[in-house]
Amino acid sequence: MIRMSRLALFAALTATIAQPAIADELRVLSFNVRTVTGKDGPDRWEARRELFADTIRQLHPDVIGTQELAKEQGDDTVARLPEYTWFGRDRFGGHADEHMGIFYRKDRLKLVDSGDYWLSDTPDKVASITWGNIFPRMVNWALFERLSDHKRFYLLDTHFPYRDQDEDARSRSAREMAAWIGRLPAGVPVILTGDFNTGPESDAHATLTAALKDAWSAAPKREGPENTFHGFTGNPTKRIDWILFRGVEATSVHTVTTSKDGHYPSDHFPVEANFTL
Question: Which residues pair with 217 in a beta bridge?
Fold first, then answer.
């Protein structure tokens, strides 16, 4: 047995205490909730809302960008997780349809500013549809300030169209978003969450990553499968859920595969990324 003298033990403890604190990381989650209107039987919202909240509770992210969120789902979630609140209009400008709802921890972040715009030729027109889309597509955004150190960052959340023939609309959406992000203050970090309904080989990904980094490829630590959409099977086939960023450092990224008794909180695996501001 190796014995340490009292002097040596004191020196070791002092050195440990003197070490600088680990950087206060920002934990971001992108989570396609899966709409309440789907005929999902045992995977309907009422059957998985507890698991959905438990998944968030286990991860305890600071901020969450969601897609396909109904008001009922948002309210159910914050009722179970009162440390969070959420905001955002739906894609028709009200609260009766799908939202790109943004959740955040009230004890960690302050909402400084927020807004939305539509992915169309008239982005300021609520519920506008162009480019062959069959539903309005939009972006919800926020400027947050971290309460612990008053550092600020933008969070943008979106959901691109899903059909095979929508690739041009997805490319146009990416160009519109890239231009919008390009007008933001250069010194303020930007994080983008979303279900992009296309893979990293796409023109949309190339357009957005011309100025942003993809957490999946940039983070030094990766965990979980690369692909994210699994249709409640647990076997993902496509990486369509991304977290992109600029002005911060990604320390890790995790595709979250939480399940219970063979059921999942959504038909997408959520993606979690940790950042230092």
Answer: none
Q: What number of CA atoms fall less than 13 Å from residue 80's CA on the CB side?
A: 17
Domain assignment of residue 11, yes or no: no
Here the CATH number for the domain that contains residue 226 is 3.60.10.10
Please state the domain count of the chain.
Answer: 1
For strand 222-223 and strand 249-255, is the pairing parallel, antiparallel, or unpaired? parallel
Helix (H, G, I), strand (E, B) or coil at 12: helix
Per-residue pLDDT reduced to its tens digit, 42-90: 999 999 999 999 999 999 999 999 999 999 999 999 999 999 999 999 9
Rg (CA), the chain: 20
Pairing of strands 222-223, 190-195: unpaired
pTM here is 0.91
Tens-place pLDDT, residues 19-34: 333 458 999 999 999 9
**Closest by CA position to 28, among listed 213, 251, 187:** 251
The verdict on residue 8 lying in a domain is no
204 phi, psi to nearest 5 deg = -60, -45
**Residues of the chain under the 50 pLDDT cut:** 1-22
